[in-house]
From TrEMBL:
PANTHER family assigned: NA(+)/H(+) ANTIPORTER SUBUNIT (PTHR43373), NA(+)_H(+) ANTIPORTER SUBUNIT A (PTHR43373:SF1)
Protein name stated in the entry: Na+/H+ antiporter subunit A
Record-annotated NADH-Ubiquinone oxidoreductase (complex I) chain 5 N-terminal domain positions: 57-93
Domain Na+/H+ antiporter MnhB subunit-related protein: 795-917
Principal place of residence: membrane
Residues annotated as domain MrpA C-terminal/MbhE: 663-746
GO biological process: monoatomic ion transport
Keywords: Antiport, Cell membrane, Ion transport, Membrane, Transmembrane, Transmembrane helix, Transport
Claim: Transmembrane is one of the keywords in the record: yes
Origin species: Spongiactinospora gelatinilytica
Ranges of residues in domain NADH:quinone oxidoreductase/Mrp antiporter transmembrane: 119-404
Subcellular location: Cell membrane; Membrane
Amino acid sequence: MLLAVAAFFAAAVLAPTALRTLGLRAFWLVALVPAAVTLWALAVPVPHEQVVPWVPRLQVQLAFRMDTLALVMTLIVAGIGALILVYCGRYFTPGGPGLPAFAGEFTAFAGAMLGLVLADDLILLYVFWELTTVFSYLLIGYDAEDRTSRRAALTAIVVTAAGGLTMLGGLVLLGLRAGTFRISEILAAPPAGPAVSVALALILVGALSKSALVPFHFWLPGAMAAPTPVSAYLHAAAMVKAGVYLVARLAPAFAADPVWRPVVLVFGGATMLVGAWRALRKHDLKLLLAFGTVSQLGFLTALLGAGGRAAAQAGAYLLIAHAVFKAGLFMVVGIVDHATGTRDLRKLGGVGRSMPITCAAAVLLTASMAGVPPLAGFVGKEAAFAAFPSDPPVLAVLVAGSALTVAYSVRFVWGAFADKGIEPVAVHPPEAVLAGPVVLLAVVSLLLGPLAPVIDGWLAGYGMAYPAGAADEPLALWHGFTVPLLLSAVVLAVGVALFPARFFVARVQDRLHPPIDAERTFRLIMRGLDFAADQATRFTQRGSLPVYLRYILFALLVLPGAALMSGLPWPGAARIWYVPAEIVVAGLVCLAAFATTLQSWRMPAVLCAAVTGTGTATMFVLHGAPDLGLTQFLTETVTLVAFVLVLRRLPPRFVERQYVGIRRVNAALGVAAGLLVAAMGYVAINARTQAPISAAYPQAAREAGGANIVNIALVDLRAWDTMGESSVLLIAAAGVTGLIFVRRRPRLPRTVEAPGGTWSLPGLRSFGEPPEDAAATTWLRGSETLSPERRSIMFEVVARLIFHPMLVLSIYLLFSGHGTPGGGFAAGLVAGLALTVRYLAGDRYALAEAMPIGPGVCQGAGLGVMAVTGLAGLALTGSVLHETVLHWRVPVLGEIHLVTSLAFDIGVYLVVIGVVLDVLRAMGDELDRQVEEEGEEVITA
């Protein structure tokens, strides 16, 4: 099952390239993946499960389970997906903008939906749930230049993501109360109590928002801005079916909960009526079907969540029937739109005579939607009526909603294909490939009715999870003359009668206005949030770093400070130092920090601040942590270089003088925050109630085949943390360096003057390009590009001497980090410093020669290596990022030990080099360019 899901995502990665190479025919190639998964699903035994450990300590697993309900949804997701991909091969115009990305996003969307329905872990289900949200956003906003598409996509992701976050709280609470996050185990032994009711309420909010039930129904019709294939898949097999599936999955265990049944029946019934009522007024065929989908989703939710066996099997059967007729009808709308250039039923005339095959298929599909015998819709609706013999209010809602369904079904067929007494539109008959999937779905819909008994036996595996009812009957095309049959006849009669009365119905709708407009309420809420965010931003984001620091330090004093004073145990006697040298180093750090606050010149302030960092590194060494000391020292060196590069664009002195009162406030906040952090660290260490996990690190390090606990913790014991921190580091680096490239403010003058001195910038670099043959004649380009007053022969000689040894040292630190101080982070910093020396001795041309690969490539390659290492551990040992120690004996060299986490460390090494390169590119290279551009402008003027 994991491979089936992975196949979709692999196809999604390859689909864009296939589209660029093969054109629209690539859609047919991609369709082979869901087609193969469909055949696999039919062959796999049920039930069947697969479990791969993911985060064992949090009880999170890559757990997949194929049971009857999952099989139904798999056939819908994969089968309908394959047909729509075939349809795409003739629907789109060759060479259309964004088609390669669309192919990948659509395939990934299908893969996420498949993972969702197969997931047997609550957290894994949520991951796929949110993936469907993200991919649906991309698909709905396919036409990025169209404002309507962007707005529809934004509305969809806001509503469904908000519901998803609410649902996440419910899933976590439910898993904690059950003692497991495995869905099958929860359903086998469901917990109970008020906390479970709260969890179910939160989960239902997510399900209702995902399936566009009232009051979240407004986002789905807006999603019709997407291309027709997206609409067909979205409504028939994916996204909106996720909420219905979740209700069907949890109902067998929780239908008896006091929260469950009222919520499901009330909101499901209301949605069925509201959607059908709104569909009667729509002139756009896609919007008509969209509101019809809203109605049908309410119907399915009420059936599958009611808690009875008969209702559940009727709902599962209608789930299949709805996927078939709704996918086919949306593709019919796409064919009509292609053939005529419009979807407005007021402008369509005579289409049925011009496209008889498409018209016949549409009539069959619409008849199934309306519940006309002997089609699938009739069997399902009759079974639904029979499932509520003792619940008249629910039965009345189902009958009324079904009658409205018949009415808008007749309106759809009449609007799309009837003559209507208007001039026939010009029609371009569709290609066979375009109409083929529609005809196939029409035939399937026709066969589902007579095959109902067979399907009923197939669905029994799902229905058996519910308690049996006294009036339960198997699915069949004919049960005799019964009350459900009479109700079906009434539904058809009333629905057909509503069509001639459509003008009267329209006048009634004009007079009836809902007391609360859900979409308008949503827009008001969004405006309110925007206004609140704007006001909060105006108050907090004032463009002043000291102000930001005041807010941060104040929050630190209020929140953790209150916790510290609320009763945490204070230790008694304390050991202030271990060796006398610590007193000296600590004193120097404090003096340097105090001296930093007294400086009026920027460079001395930076140097004093660097002393504090170097002192901290020394403290690490004195405490027996040479690896931390080395890393801290290297980090301080890189930071100092970055500061010096930035200072070229700032006045030499701090020009702005703060008021005495503000300086006192800043001093008080700084001192109080420093004391608080020291006190918190002291209390936290001494108030420990459990043995620290670090006590087990030495033994774990020996088992990992190393002696450097710090590096082993980073690349093995806590590799997940390192991977996340590396991602955050890259994001921060991209954000900070991006500020250099996005120049929103007016350009600075050639020189920056301040009281006490002037730094002339144009003399720092020459404006000429290096000669073409410079690489063949010199090692450092700076000898040809730097102005003579900026060259340092001594520094160039030193750079020649230490550049290559520094690179060799970095490689040594990388490979020796498992047993001695070093590792990927320290090694990357050393390599980055070597490149920094090369840049400072030369210029950006020298840096480009030394490292022709861009920082983005290094960073991406590093993260890629880390990810591949994790997946390799999953493939080889069944656990992500699992380490393996390889031993073999080599002649002369002796025994060789190779740890697989070294590959992970190489990824860290590349990431750090990429970050240093990013800093040099932005604060060195880009600032050089800005200086040259401003110098050229002034010279020209």
